[in-house]
Amino acid sequence: MIKMEEVTLKGKCGIGIEISLPDSPPLILVKGSRGFIACGYLDIDAANKVGAAAATIKGVNSVKELLDGAIVEATNKALKAGIKPGMKGRDALEKIL
User: 9 forms bridges with which residues in the sheet?
Assistant: First the structure.
């Protein structure tokens, strides 16, 4: 099952996606216009190689948990946008919406 929802922060919108996977936790991602935050399935090294502004939050099972969780890793482009480890997901998303 794939669930999509609009995520609105300070008047800007992103898209939250939850994908159910067999025998595994779901894949969770929220996309903004300039980057995205995702669960621990995201490989930061791969995202760095393609120049994405991306960050991970581990141990989440929903878009809400992703927004409430703390950033664990961020790509170079995300760091330049002001996203830092320890920052809440919603605060990081505001920088890339």
Answer: 12
The three-state DSSP-derived secondary structure of the chain is: CEEEEEEEECCEEEEEEEEEECCEEEEEEEECCCCEEECCCCCHHHHHHCCCCEEECCCCCCHHHHHHCECCEECHHHHHCCCCCCCEHHHHHHHHC
- Give the integer Cα–Cα distance in Å for 50 and 3: 26
Set out the domains of the chain in order of their start, with CATH numbers: 2-96 (3.30.1980.10)
What would the mean pLDDT of 24-50 be, rounded to a whole number?
97
Q: What pLDDT sits at residue 37? A: 98
